[in-house]
């Protein structure tokens, strides 16, 4: 049986370990550098390389942003009691449906009481509101 050591796999594991220490364990680059007997500049380089190799993926979840001033104008213009207008920063239809569904669910919870009767249809947005 032949045992081979793949340097690339070991190096990627090293990048993953450094990334875990920085992003999950909240260690500073200086602390990591000290532990690996290197400089914090090299640690920064390793962290960037981990991102470049998709070992680390950073996802920023922007909150749904309501456009309050536009909601107010809409209510005044059309004589509405309520209006909810969202700013959606993504053209992905699925993500749009999820955002709209969650916002609808949050709103519905504020207006329903125990003896409310609700009629529903079906669609992707409603699916996300119920989910």
TrEMBL record:
<keyword id="KW-0238">DNA-binding</keyword>
<dbReference type="InterPro" id="IPR051054">
    <property type="entry name" value="SorC_transcr_regulators"/>
</dbReference>
<dbReference type="InterPro" id="IPR036388">
    <property type="entry name" value="WH-like_DNA-bd_sf"/>
</dbReference>
<dbReference type="GO" id="GO:0003677">
    <property type="term" value="F:DNA binding"/>
</dbReference>
<keyword id="KW-0805">Transcription regulation</keyword>
<feature type="domain" description="Sugar-binding">
    <location>
        <begin position="66"/>
        <end position="130"/>
    </location>
</feature>
<dbReference type="InterPro" id="IPR037171">
    <property type="entry name" value="NagB/RpiA_transferase-like"/>
</dbReference>
<dbReference type="InterPro" id="IPR007324">
    <property type="entry name" value="Sugar-bd_dom_put"/>
</dbReference>
<protein>
    <recommendedName>
        <fullName>Sugar-binding domain-containing protein</fullName>
    </recommendedName>
</protein>
<dbReference type="Pfam" id="PF04198">
    <property type="entry name" value="Sugar-bind"/>
</dbReference>
<dbReference type="InterPro" id="IPR013324">
    <property type="entry name" value="RNA_pol_sigma_r3/r4-like"/>
</dbReference>
<keyword id="KW-0804">Transcription</keyword>
<comment type="similarity">
    <text>Belongs to the SorC transcriptional regulatory family.</text>
</comment>
<dbReference type="GO" id="GO:0030246">
    <property type="term" value="F:carbohydrate binding"/>
</dbReference>
């Amino acid at each position: 049986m032949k045992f081979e050591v793949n340097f690339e796999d070991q190096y990627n594991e090293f990048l993953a370990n450094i990334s875990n220490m920085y992003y999950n364990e909240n260690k500073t680059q200086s602390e990591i550098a000290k532990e690996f007997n290197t400089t914090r500049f090299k640690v920064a380089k390793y962290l960037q390389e981990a991102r470049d190799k998709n070992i680390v993926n950073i996802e920023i979840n922007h909150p749904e942003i309501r456009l309050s001033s536009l909601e107010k104008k809409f209510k005044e213009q059309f004589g509405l009691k309520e209006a909810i207008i969202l700013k959606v920063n993504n053209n992905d239809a699925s993500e749009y449906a999820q955002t709209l569904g969650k916002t609808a669910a949050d709103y519905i919870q504020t207006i329903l009481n125990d003896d409310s009767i609700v009629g529903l249809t079906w669609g992707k947005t409603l699916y996300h509101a119920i989910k």
